[in-house]
Specification:
The complex is a heterodimer of chains A (119) and B (110).
Chain A (H helix, E strand, L loop, with lengths): L2 E5 L2 E3 L5 E8 L8 E6 L5 E7 L6 E3 L7 E6 L4 E6 L8 E7 L14 E5 L2
Parallel strand pairs in A: 2-10
Antiparallel strand pairs in A: 1-3, 3-8, 4-5, 4-9, 5-6, 7-8, 9-10
Chain B lengths: L8 E4 L5 E6 L10 E6 L6 E4 L13 E6 L2 E6 L8 E9 L4 E4 L3 E5 L1
The chains are: A mainly beta (119), B mainly beta (110).
């Protein structure tokens, strides 16, 4: 069974940093692309970033480019999102989502981790 | 706002057929697959339709997807109370080099 478990969320002050993690299991992690998608309270889904297998291709939403860094550790079957210069508008539930082998479209989703940016 | 246009709400009575539209452009829907997700209240999104019209195992055949040109649609036939949820379309946008989601459609079963 595919399992994705996010961690690392919490309350952070504006301008602060955070590192989100996603522990994956139940599938050959190194062959799949992975995504981060977020959802602000009461709002819709917003794609954040995608990393391909072997980290050969990385994409970011314009809203996070330059502040967020996606990475993966295939040996530890884990996905990460390093977030800097946090803003109030970054407050959201951050979901880790498995992509495909040939495409990055999110397919299986974790339960999410909440990031709250507030002073 | 999103480059994909979805109606914010849709509704129907049990047993009815409800259709949700997702309109885009040549740089997104017109040249890429469309995926649909269902998000039940308080839960994570779930893949409902992939590659325009394919259903993952376990998704009832009451759900169907289609795409024509720069628009796509999700149909729910035989509407049931447990179908009350938010539904999102998504695709890749070649111009933005990013995945994009629609704003989501809240389906209410009357």
């Amino acid at each position: 069974e595919v399992q994705l478990v996010e961690s690392g969320g919490g309350l952070v002050k504006p301008g602060g940093s955070l590192r989100l993690s996603c522990a994956a299991s139940g599938f050959p992690f190194n062959t799949y692309s992975m995504n981060w998608v977020r959802q602000a309270p009461g709002k819709g889904l917003e794609w954040v970033s995608t990393i391909s297998s072997s980290s050969t291709k990385i994409y970011y939403a314009d809203s996070v480019k330059g502040r967020f860094t996606i990475s993966r550790d295939d040996a530890k079957t884990s996905l990460f999102l390093q977030i800097h210069s946090l803003r109030a508008e970054d407050t959201a539930v951050y979901y880790c989502a498995r992509g495909g082998i040939l495409t990055g479209y999110p397919t299986t989703w974790g339960q999410g981790t909440l990031v709250t940016v507030s002073s | 706002q999103s480059v994909l246009t979805q109606p914010p709400s849709a509704s129907g009575t049990p047993g009815q057929r409800v259709t949700i539209s997702c309109s885009g452009s040549s740089s997104n829907i017109g040249s890429n697959f469309v995926y649909w997700y269902q998000q039940l209240p308080g839960t994570a999104p779930k893949l409902l339709i992939y590659k325009n019209n394919q259903r993952p195992s376990g998704v009832p055949d009451r759900f169907s997807g289609s795409k024509s040109g720069t628009s796509a649609s999700l149909a729910i036939s035989g509407l049931r109370s447990e179908d009350e949820a938010d539904y999102y379309c998504a695709t890749w946008d070649d111009s933005l080099s990013s995945y994009v989601f629609g704003i989501g459609t809240k389906v209410t079963v009357l």
